Structures are given as structure tokens and as C-alpha cells.
Amino acid sequence: MRDRTASPLWPLLIVGLGTLVVPLDSAVNIDFPAIVARFGLPIPMIQWIVIAYVLTQTALMLSFGRIGDLLGYRRVFLFGTGVSTLAFVACALAPSYPALLGARVAQGVGAGLILSCGPALATSLFPEAMRTAILARYMMMFAIGSALGPSVFGSLVERFGWSAVFSFRAPIAGAAFLLAWTLPRPARGKPERFDAAGGVLLALALSFMLLTLNRLRPPGPETAVFGALAIAGFGLFYRQERRTPQPIIDFGLFRNADFTVINISNALINLSAFSIMLLAPFYLSRISGLSLPEAGLILAASPAGTIVAAPLAGRLAQGHKPRLIAMMGTALSGAGLFGISLSGSTPDLLILVLSMAIQGIGLGLFQVAYFDIVTATIPARNRGVAGALGMATRSIGTVSGATILMLIFQSLQVAGTDGFMTAFQTTFRIAATIPAALIVLELKRTRRPRVRTAPP
Hints:
This protein is mostly helical. It folds into 3 domains: 7-130 and 142-183, Growth Hormone, Chain: A, CATH 1.20.1250.20; 198-243; 250-446, Up-down Bundle (Growth Hormone, Chain: A), CATH 1.20.1250. 75% of the residues lie in helices and 0% in strands. The chain is built from 17 helices and no strands. The chain is globular, with a radius of gyration of 21 Å.
């Protein structure tokens, strides 16, 4: 058998190439005006471009992670890159808006397949001792995609039209699909059954939860209906998982308070972090003389910070506990968001970029530490579920941030010259209190005497 350390970077680069197409989807946001013009849409209809993709991806991710544990991460990754390639082509060639939405659903399936097994596939190709370093490099490549999305594709859309955000990703996904065939085949493990009933219940529960969040602005009768269906779905899913001998996720893991808190923290950290992509573009649009590519480069400061921080977190993990690294990241993330809240009507771009970079560094440190904790807690045979859980809580936090932070911003904004700036500054300060509250909670928890229990 070939030594897995003989070529330490090549397999990871293949996985990173396939993963890259998912965070590049941030470019679709800058494509909204062109899509509206192409299909003659009322502006509110554009939200379904996001909903069709994010809902599909998030609802299926945990089930795909479990399937990866059963069938092999390489196989799921191949399906994901293959489906994504076809979906990008279908999006670019969509003759109508319904066809584009259908292709976005297919794109969500592909993204769910890729993200559900990406971290597990990357770590499975290397010795266990390299797990944290590999996770750090994986998160660095994910951040590269987030940085390139708004900064590169704005120019591509201006030159090649609305379909560029899809057509230019098809060759990337296709190359990853072909290269993934060169990855080593995993040894077949003991066959287990997939909990199909649990998978359906989980997908429905997550879908109704995301629809509930989407309908909070403004709330209506359907909001309560979706919320009730989400609660019922999660209740039935929990009951199903407790009864089946081979569940999608073992809820016994959540009896570990540390495991529960770090997963909640991941959702909340990403909720607060989304304030940048949600509100900063509106602030930048008010700066006279700032072009779209220049604004994209400024927005790239946050993911650029993550690119720097991810490998740093891998090195720090060699001598520090991951929970300490997670706290450091949480603190820096909050500090960066508070720094953005100091922006005034007369912009200081240096301070703004520096604050975004500090927030990105904090997010990078936290994300690597989070994945390290989760993959160390969940048994290695279920590493697909571990990676999918991390990506799913991240998506839930992002979607929640899009709704909750915009509700806060709109409720604070009042008519007048300074209405926007007051709402902008206050919303970012509220976002900054989330990491601060998490640090206070963690400090209180660590001071309490702990009763040792057997690991699950």
C-alpha cells in the first residue's frame, strides 16, 4: 500500500479544489441585479435563488455525512463534484427562472455532498497525528474561496454577464471530479444500514426551520405554521434516532456539556460573523468613488484573515488545548466586529480593513479549534457526521444571522441623515456582544468543579 505521507499536499489539494466551488457561491450575491434584469423579476423574488440552494444543502448535509461514513468519503465526494459540475452548467444555461431555481436545488445537493465529507475525506488521507494540521489547511482553502468570491467574480460578471458566477465554476468542479479518481480507495468496513426515516425527518425539520427564519421578516401566519412543523419534525427525528440501533447522529454525545456548548457556539459565532457580508456592502456603497472591485477587495479582508489564521491555529494546537484556541478566536472575532462598529460617516478604510481582518483571524482560529474538538469527540468511524455537523451548524448560524441581524438593523434605522449609520453601528455592537457573551459563559463554566464521566 502506498505511504499516505509520501505526497502530503496533493490529496489535500484535490479535496480543497472540489471544496472551493462552495464558498465561491458568495459571488452570487453580487450577481443579483444582473439575474433580476435577465429574467425580468421583481426584486423580492431573488431571495429564492438563495433559499433553493441553502435550504437543500443544509437539510441534506448530516444525512450525506452519515452516508459517507457508510459508503466511503471518496465516493460521496465524487458524487458531489460530479453533480456540482452538471448543476453549474444547468444554472448557466437556464432558459427561465424556474429552470434556474431547479438547477440551484441541484447545486445545493452537490454542495451538501461535498461539504458533508470534505473534512472527513481530507483527514482520512493522512495519519491521525496530522488531523489538526490537515483540518487547518482545509479551512484555509475554504477561506480562499470566500475571499475570491466577491473580489474576482464582480469583474467576471461585468465582462461576461450574469451566468459567469456559474459557468466559471463548472471547470473547477469538473477538474476536481476527474482528479478525485486518483485518491486511494478506502478499505471496506462493516456494513451498516442507513436510517432513511431519520434522514427524511431531519431534512423536513431543517427545511421548515430555515423557512421559519426566512419568514421572520416580516412574520405572518405561515411563520407560526413553519415553526410548529419544524419543532414537530425535530421531535420525531429525536424519537427516531433514540429508537434505531444505527442512528444518523448519536444524541448521547450531547450529554457532554462541552460538546453541546461548542456546537451552539459555532452557530452563534457564524451568526455574528455574517453581519459583515450582510451590512458592510451597504456601508461601502455609500463611499463615493469606491468601485465595485475595490469594495470586493475590502470585503475580502475578513476571509483573508481566516486564510492567515487557519495554519496558525494548526501550529498553536501542538502546544495548546483547542478550547483555549477557540476562546482566543472568539475574543478576536468580537474585537473585530466592535472595531467595525466604530466606522463613521467619514470612512477610515484602514481601520475598517484592519477590523475585518482581525474578525477573520478570530473566525479562523475558532473554526479550526471547533473542528478539532468535534472530530476528536465523535468516533473516527463517524467522521463524516462530525464534519457535516460542523458545516450544518455553520450554515444554520449564517441563515439565522441573515434574518435576525437584518431585523435588528431595520428596527433601529430611522428616517434622517444619520439613520443608516446609527443602525449600522448599533447592529455591529450587538453582533460583537455575542462572542463576548460566549467568553463569559465559558469562563464561568471552566471555574466550576467538573465531575468526571466516561466518554460516550
